[in-house]
Structures are given as C-alpha cells and as structure tokens.
Amino acid sequence: MQNLRYVGKNLFLERVSIQNFLKKNKTPFYIYSENQIVSNYLNFVKTFKKTNPLICFAAKSNSNTNILRILGKLGAGADVVSGGELLKALKAGIKPKKIVFSGVGKSEDELKIAINKKILLINCESESEAKLVNKLAKNLRKKISIGFRLNPNVDAKTHKNISTGKADNKFGLSIKNFKSFLREINKFKNIKLEALSVHIGSQILNDGPFKKTLNVMNKLIKELKLNLKYVDLGGGFGINYSDNEKPINLNNYSKLVNNFATKLNCKIIFEPGRSIIGNTGLLISKVQFIKKGDNKNFIILDAGMNDFMRPALYDAFHKIIPITKNSSKMKSAIEFVGPICESTCKFGVYRKYQKLIENDFVAITNVGAYGSSLSSNYNTRPLIAEILINKNKFKYIRKKQNLQKLINS
User: Where are the beta strands (DSSP E) in 14-71?
Assistant: First the structure.
C-alpha cells in the first residue's frame, strides 16, 4: 500500500495516524485509502491506454456504494453478479450501458431487472439461461444484447477455490456446447449475440494463463467467423499479499490485448476487482486477550472470521502489522485468532513478532477485496463499520450495524 507508512513508531494511512484515530473509533473496522483506489484505477487505465477498454469494476470484490461511486466518477463501469449488485451500481451513478451482468444462476427476477434497466450485456453462462433471456425479452417486447461466457479450459494455476476457467469448474459454456447452440441461435429473435466473455480465475500472478486464453479466443472467433462488438476478457489480476509475491506485470499482456482487439475490430471489456481495491484497505482490530498455549501463544483479536473470511475460506495470507512499533520481541511463536466458535477463525502464525500486550492494536493488511463483501452476521455479530480516508479527512461509508436491530430482525 503506497499510502501506508510508519511515521516514527506510529502507523499512518495517508495523513491519518491510526493510533490517534482509535481514540474515537471503536474496533474492529475497515478503513480504506481513497487516493490508493484512485491511483490503482488510473494505473490500470494507463496500462491499457492503447486498447481503451471498458473497465467494469468487479462489484463482488467490494460493493460499498461509496467506493462504486468513486470509481464511476473516474469512468468505470461495473461487473455485477446479482440483482442487488446491479441496483447498487446504478445507485452509485454508474450508467446502465457500462454494466455487464455475469453469474451462473441468475433468477427470473434478476434478469427482468437487467432487461428493464437496459444494461450493456447479460453474459449468459448456459443455453438454458439464453433461452430464458429470450423468453423474458419477448414478453417485455424487447431485443436484448447478450454475451456468452465461455469456459476455455485454461488452468490459471491459482487456488482451487478461485479457479473458474477449467473444464471441471461450473462457470461458462464449453466451446463444444457453444458451437452447438450457435447453430440454432437464430431461432431466438429477442436476443442478439454481441460478445464473448471469459474469466479464468482470481489472484493470478503471471500472464501465462491470460496469453493462453487469448489464443483460445482468437482461434475460436476466427474459426466461427464471429463478428463481435465486444470481447470481455474478465479480470483475475493478482496483487502481492506477502513479501515473497510480486504483483502481475500487465505491460506485455496489454500489447497482446491491443493486437487482439485491433485484428478482430472489437471493444475490449475488463472486469478487475482485486487489482483495483485489494491493497487499499486495512482491518483494524484490538488484542482482546493473550492466552498461553503449549507450542505458541494465542493473540485473540476482536475481529472474527465473520468480519474477514478470506483466511478461513482460502487459507489466505494477510500480513498483520502493529499500529505502534516497539523493539521488544514476543518470547514464543504466536497465532492471531478471532472470537468465532470455529477452529478456522484464525489469521496467521508468526514465529517472531514484536511484543504485544492486551489492548494493543494491529492492522490486517490488503483487505480491500473480498473483506467486507464476504462478511456476515455469523454468531449474531453486527457487521462492522467501513471508513474512507482522504488525506487527513475521513467519513463513515458504512456505520456499524445496530445490535438491537440485528436481534429484532
């Protein structure tokens, strides 16, 4: 995070001292750097400047309306996977013609919303979905632009739970089945095929899988002589969660994409999420208790897996840093854990860590993507606050959920 640094012993996000901020703000909470969000988006735009793609931010990565609004003002569209995300994107001011609707199991109600709001594309993921869109469009006396999401059978070499482009993944239509459906698509008078879409996975750290996917798409489009308005190349661009990882370098890939788009004379759509929002956020948490174990000490935080699910769901690593540094060391290994009654409510083991005591504070880093959007009320715990920092100013973009209202709901 470019806007995260220590000034002396104290951690700052942009110009805000987290230690001072904690005097009036109760943990746990999410806190984001607005300038980091803007910088990430503009860097992505710059990388693909020659191609000039439509950049549809993956709302599932962080669907806070205030964040969607920031990106919308910069020119972003939205990739949505539910009716709720679609309506949030519209509420944030994102134009319908910059919204694509993905997802394998869209309901009739969700598809009706998409049709009535006149969004850019519904990316169908099965023959049955395309037939349903045609039926609904016919009833509404409309002709709808659709894309077909293909499953290119490309292994993205990422975690099995975020792989989406292999033949045994549920996403997209196989090339064989797409060719079969294409032979009868003219029967369906209320849909118009304008795009092909792919998304092969998430947290991809090299451009090899993307190059393979481009080759598959290029070959197929030429073979079928498709005249497409759009090719949606998805997202999945990785960031560095640990010091051993390097974020993906997209410069070479951008040249290949530009060449691809020029030859096919089509508009490119991207669906980045993590690469825009991932490294912009922190989860600030208090050390509630320290409990001695036989082989390590447990640092029990007030943030739980319901607040931040990625370590439990993906075995994900997120570096945990102290809010105030000191030169003393813990005498034994430690494990950061949370209060939820699950063994998976844990955030990382450290063999060497600075000395912590109860009521100290730490920050879980790089939580902007799939942090708040995956949070839940498990164990009947209220959703925590989200705060946006801009230089030395801040505002709540989601207040902590009221416990009494939660109990009464």
Answer: 16-17, 29-33, 54-58
